[in-house]
Amino acid sequence: MSESPSLEIHPDLVRRILIDFLRTEITRAGFSRAVVGLSGGIDSALACYLVDEALGPENVLAVRMPYQTSSPDSLEHAALVIGQTGVRELTVPITPMAEPFLAAIPADQAVRRGNVFARLRMIVLYDRSAEFGGLVVGTGNKTEILLGYTTLYGDSACALNPLGDLYKTQIRQLARAVSVPEGTVAKPPSADLWAGQTDEGELGFTYERVDQLLLLLVDGRHSPESCVEAGFDRAFVQAVLERIRRNQFKRLQPPIAKLSNRTVGYDFLYLRDWGT
Amino acid sequence: MNRLPLALAQFNTRLGDVDANLDRHLSYAEQARRQGAELLVFPELSLTGYALMDLAVSVARRPHADDPTFRPLLQASKSIDLLVGFVEAEQRHRFYISSAYLSRGEIVHVHRKVYLPTYGLFDEGRFFAWGDAVRAFDTRFGRMGVLICEDFWHASPPYLLWLDGADVLLFASASPGRGLSREPRLETARWVEQINQAYASLFTSFIVHVNRTGFEDGLNFWGGSTVFDPDGALLARAPYHEEALTLVELDLEQLHRTRARLPLLRDERTALMSRELARILRRDPGSPTLGD
Question: What CATH number has the domain bearing residue A58?
């Protein structure tokens, strides 16, 4: 009989694979350095620890990009990570860049404003990565990728992503194992786009619960009906499925209209690691 | 000869760069020879890398003494037998995932992968032709058989090699690791080791498995090459997730001792098997039609 699916991981194994992944894939692309946007949250803290282990602290640039309403806790938590790892650091406030955009966006349109922050941070990261000579390491996890809880060309933009196949619940296990400060691991996850915002408040469910459901639906290939039988509320299952479907566009390159006999994305097929 | 000093080379290939991978082969061959090995086994597609996609046709080679890639390998095989993985181009421009056994400057045997996984993360059937033979062959160490990765996820190819006289089965893999649990190894690693141990036990034979390491984009290859003896005992295991040249000596007399105790080969009822298989494959109305 097969064991019931579990979100439990063996942190040392995952850590080993991810550190090798970062080192191998960054160096074979011709780089030895990396840039991480450090928000003060668990995902970017974990990414920073991993890339520090992979490349050494002198080869990692952690960039803090606060907006004026960002929580002071975020900056402090990011400072703790920088202090513990010894990576290079840079703080680039985005308030002066954001203000002209925000002047044209009504205050109640939180999503538009949030997207502006996320995309400005992407611009800063990519600009600094050119200066530093390092690749941008992504910090998106499997839960937010599946739910589409991310800004296209914003926080999802990166050269490579070590965390995208780990659910938030698994991120927490790995973060504790690599000694990410407990204050960062235990606090409620937040995009920190406005005061008091939390992911779980905005999504309307906890990561722990939705990760269990995603594990059944996505990894276990269970039918929605069998998830309901397993104890999940029917409306919750439907809402999550709909979120996954609706956000597929964020997970793919934009479709190219096929006209010729050989088209990028359809029948011109090579890995990024081509020739390396 | 009763002892086979064997070496397993698990390493990270350069994707589509045959010359660079050839250099690794030659240096491993030299290193293994210096350490006393007489047979060196490389993983699947060891000369090319695994996820080739549209690169497949441009890295294909003909296993022949005139081929610039095979010439130095055949030269090296004068001092140590080699099993190398490559993309084989045949006369009519079909491309196979193949492994070639080289010995004393000759190509002794070429196996073309007979099961091309085309599901989940795999897309081999899109780019490669299906091999259609499973044959054992004679070496200076006795009769052997070669299978490539998905070939041995099916029970029939190892079984056929066993009946065809192979006592040492060489399995070459490029196995992308996947499946997390609380265990300190990936589910793929657990599964592959279980079946290899089962084959060694069921066929009272040596099972040599060599799996590559490294990454291709986000795919990790987990290494962990193993050798099981005819009792199903683990003789060697290379480290997970890192390059290694692993040496192990096979005591071929173990075949005698194990089969004297456990005559599974002697008692295998091949005629019964053949008769029942023929009956099952007969397309009676209402019976399931099985693939060929």
Answer: 3.40.50.620
- For chain A, how many structural domains are there in total? 1
State the nearest Cα–Cα gap between B123 and chain A, in angstroms.
11
Q: Is the pLDDT of residue B287 over 60?
A: no
At A151, give phi and psi (nearest 5°): -100, 120
Cα–Cα dist B215/B200, whole Å: 29
Query: What element of type H or E holds A149?
Result: none
Q: Which domain holds residue B61?
A: 3-281
Measured between alpha carbons, how far is A166 from B111 in angstroms, rounded to an integer? Answer: 38
What's the structural domain count of chain B? Answer: 1
> Nearest CA to CA, how far is A219 from chain B (Å)?
9
Q: Mind listing the pLDDT tens digit for each residue in B113-132?
A: 999 999 999 999 999 999 99
Q: With bands split at pLDDT 50, 70 and 90, how would you rate the model's confidence at A106?
A: very high
CB pairs under 8 A between A and B: 65
Tell me the residues of A at the B interface, defined by beta carbons under 8 Å apart: 3, 6, 8-10, 12-14, 16-17, 20-21, 24-25, 160, 165, 170, 268-276
* Residue B288 domain-assigned (yes or no): no
Q: Would strands B219-222 and B213-216 be described as parallel, antiparallel, or unpaired? A: antiparallel
Render pLDDT for B27-52 as a digit per residue (tens, 0 to 9).
Answer: 999 999 999 999 999 999 999 999 99
- The answer on pLDDT for B288 being more than 60 is no
* Chain-chain contact of A275 with B182 (C-beta, under 8 angstroms): no
**Does the pLDDT at position A2 exceed 50?**
no
Tens digit of pLDDT for each residue in B219-274?
999 999 999 999 999 999 999 999 999 999 999 999 999 999 999 999 999 999 99
- Model confidence at A4, pLDDT cuts 50, 70, 90, reads low
